[in-house]
Amino acid sequence: MESPQSPAGLRTTPSWLLNQAASHAGRLISEGFAAHDLRGYHYRLLAALAEAGPASQADLGRRCGIDRSDVVAAINDLAGRGLVVRAPDPADRRRNVISLTDAGADEARRMGETVDRVQRDLLAPLSAAEGEQLTRLLTRLVEHHNRR
Amino acid sequence: MESPQSPAGLRTTPSWLLNQAASHAGRLISEGFAAHDLRGYHYRLLAALAEAGPASQADLGRRCGIDRSDVVAAINDLAGRGLVVRAPDPADRRRNVISLTDAGADEARRMGETVDRVQRDLLAPLSAAEGEQLTRLLTRLVEHHNRR
DNA sequence: TTTGAAACGTTGGCCGAACCAACGTTGGTG
DNA sequence: CACCAACGTTGGTTCGGCCAACGTTTCAAA
Prior knowledge:
Number of strands of chain A: 3
Shape of chain A: elongated
Oligomer: homodimer
Largest interface: A-B, 61 and 60 residues
Strand order of the largest sheet of chain A: 1-3-2
Structural class of chain A: mainly alpha
C-alpha cells in the first residue's frame, strides 16, 4: 500500500488517479466496516432495506447492483447475525421477503455513521467547496458513463 | 453493468462515486488493453521500462507498485511474447535484468496511445478545464493519502 | 387448458487485482 | 565465519464482481 509510484506517465493520468483515489477510499471504507465485522455488500443491503423497506432478494440485488447469487450469501450472513429476517412471500412463493430487524436497523445507522466519518477522512485534504466540486464532477462522469 | 442504483444515501457519497468512476475507467482501460491482448500489469511494466530503462524485477515491482510475485508472472508473459528479455545480472546473481526489446518498445508506445484515447473517452462529459480541475483535485487527494 | 417463457433463490464456479508466507540462492557485514 | 537482507519463485488467499445451471413457481399466450 506504500504509494505506488508507477511510471511518471501514468501518475498524472485521470484513469490512474481515479483508481488510486478509489483504492484509498476502499481501504478507508474497508477498515471502517471491519469494526462492524461486515463488508461492503452487507452495508449496501442494510442501507437499501433501511431506505426503502422490505424487499425480495432479486429486488435488493437490482437496487444495490449486486448479483443475485452474491445477495444470497450476504443475506445468509446478515440473517445469521439477526440483522435481517428472511421469510417466504405468501403472495409469490418464488420470493423471499427480507426485512430489517431492530438490531439490523441499528447496525445500518451505525454503519452510516462510519461511512460519513470516512468521507470526512477521505476529503480531508480538500476544502469543503473543493470536495463539493469533486463530487459534482464525479457525478457527471458517472452518470454519463452509466447511460450506455 | 446497468447503472447500479444503490441506496440513495450512497449515490452521492464521494467514496461511492470514486468507486463507480474508477470502475468505468477500469472497464475502458481493460477494453483498450484487450486489443493488445495484455493487461494493466503488463502496461505498467512496459511503461516503466520505456521510461527508466532496464531494471531488476524487484526494482520494477517497487517502481510500479506491483508485488514481486506478480511481477514474475507478468514478466513471464512479456518475455514469452518477446516484448522483454530476462537476463541474469552478472554483477549480482540474485537479480534478473529486464530489458525492453524493440518489439516491446513499440508495444509500449502503442499501449500509451490506447491509454491516451481512453482518457479522452473517460473525460468526454467534461470540458477541458473541468477535466484538469478533476485531475488536480484527485492528485491532491491521492498525494495526501499516499503520505502515510 | 395446456404449454412455454420468465422470474426467483440457490449452488458452484470463474476471473482479475492485490496481498502474503515460505523457500532456496546469493550478497554484504559484523 | 555467521548472520541477516535482498532476490526470484511457488503457491495460496481474499475480495468484489460475474456467469451458468438447476428446480420451483408464476404468468401469459396458444
